[in-house]
Amino acid sequence: MRRTSRKSDDGKNSTVFLLKTKAPDKDGYEDWFSRNGVVPGSSCATYFVPVLGHSSIPNALQKLRDMFEDPDTYFRQASEVGQWVAIAFTSQRAVEAYRGVVTGRRLCGTHVELDAEYLQPDMNYFVVGEATKAVLAATRAVDARRICGSECGTSAELALQVQASHNAMYGNQPKGQKPGILFITGAKHRDDLKRILDTESQGEDHIKLEELVIYETKEVASFAPDLSLALRNARSSDAFMNWFVVFSPNGCESLLRELGLLDETTGRARTGFKIGTRSAFLATIGPTTRDFLVNKFDCEPDVVATKPTPEGVGESIKAFTVEYLGLRREPKLEG
User: Fold this and answer.
1) Cα(139)–Cα(100) distance, integer angstroms
2) 238 and 22 Cβ atoms separated by less than 8 Å
3) What are residue 92's phi and psi, to 5 degrees?
4) d(CA 146, CA 150)
5) Buried b (16+ CB within 10 A) or exposed e, 135-145
6) How far apart are CA 132 and CA 307, in angstroms?
7) Strand 52-56, strand 84-89: pairing
8) Are 1 and 49 in contact, with CB atoms under 8 Å apart?
9) Which residues contact 323 (CB under 8 A, 6 or more apart)?
10) Cβ(194)–Cβ(211) below 8 Å
11) What does each of the 335 residues of the chain score in pLDDT, given as a tens digit?
12) For residue 145, which of 3, 61, 236, 271 sits 20 to 30 Å off, Cα-Cα?
């Protein structure tokens, strides 16, 4: 559990619980809330409570290393049938694993970072979200100018962009002879890319997508006690608003239980928990997690981020808070 805070002199406090692991370098969510807070003129403390643990899949990582030891076979001469002209990512964790290979940290025991020219010079990259793009763009082996899709908020949106881009470049090639796309991902992911791109029903728009699952994800055993500790620390600071930002369906049940919002008899959220004075507010990174809360627990979050980015989450929370408290809206927030 990690905490940062933004100070003020008015005696009011708000707290943002980010149910995620803090980014290793600079965390965009921490940075946004440290600069902007939640309520105008009030202090804001930020807690990180990791929900998910990730473990690499050794065989898959070795396969990825093999690809970069023999790029001619997999990446160069991409006009040939069966080879890849693009790589798709929908998570930062997948990008981090990719970086670990192409930077040479684990490649044949060397520590030589590869240049972009090492791969096919016109390799395209498709990503969901600005945060994922930022991690990928920091890799020297990647030409940042060829990263596309960061404005997409979901994998379904990304799939449509991939489809349009790919068909524009290779649409004149016969069915079954278009070069493919490599999708580097975790074990748990939505099937939107596969469903939209790689099904025979797509006809001439069909694009071969090869999935390479390089890590597994599961809820960390310490999540519930870590969350309980964070809540006790926050209560000691007498925060008048506590925001809980949920980044995935994992951990939702533990969160609702810890907040006293889960009816253990029905397994659903307690009715009327939003009525009257309250200090706990829920925000989700996007519609997928919102739908899980509604369908599984009959719990409608207060905020669904307009975009899965620090700015999208922060501005959505702040807009709700200003309206909820009846405050005058501020000028546009800092980026």
Assistant:
1) 10
2) no
3) -65, -35
4) 11
5) bbbebebbbee
6) 13
7) unpaired
8) yes
9) none
10) yes
11) 554 544 444 445 788 999 998 877 778 899 999 888 888 777 788 999 998 888 888 888 888 877 776 666 666 444 454 477 889 999 888 998 888 777 754 434 444 444 444 455 678 899 998 888 988 888 877 888 899 999 888 888 999 999 888 888 887 777 667 788 899 998 878 788 888 888 766 677 788 888 999 888 887 888 888 888 888 877 666 667 889 999 988 889 989 998 888 999 999 988 766 655 567 899 999 888 999 999 999 999 999 998 888 999 999 999 999 888 876 444 444 44
12) 61
Amino acid making up residue 269: A
Angle at 40 between CA 37 and CA 43, to 5 degrees: 50
Facing residues of 46 across strands? 4, 16
Q: How many CB atoms lie within 10 A of CB 115?
A: 11
243 Ramachandran zone, left/alpha/beta (phi>0; psi -120 to 50): beta
Is the distance from CB of 295 to CB of 287 less than 8 angstroms? no
Q: Which helix (H) or strand (E) holds 72?
A: helix 71-74
Report pLDDT for 112: 45
Burial class (CB in 10 A: 0-12, 13-18, 19+), 17: buried
- Sole residue written with tokens 């996007």: 286
Give the span between the Cα atoms of 333 and 319, in whole angstroms.
10
The rounded distance, in Å, linking the Cα atoms of 77 and 120 is: 8
Number of residues that make up the chain: 335
Tell the burial category of 23 from Cβ atoms under 10 Å away from its Cβ (0-12, 13-18, 19+). Answer: middle
**pTM for the structure as a whole:** 0.65
Q: Which pair of structure tokens corresponds to residue 12?
A: 């009011």
Helices 28-36/310-324 angle, 10° precision = 30
Which residues, in sequence order, are CB contacts of 139 under 8 Å at separation 6+?
Answer: 95, 98, 99, 102, 103
Q: Which residues contact 62 (CB under 8 A, 6 or more apart)?
A: none
Maximal C-alpha separation, the chain: 68
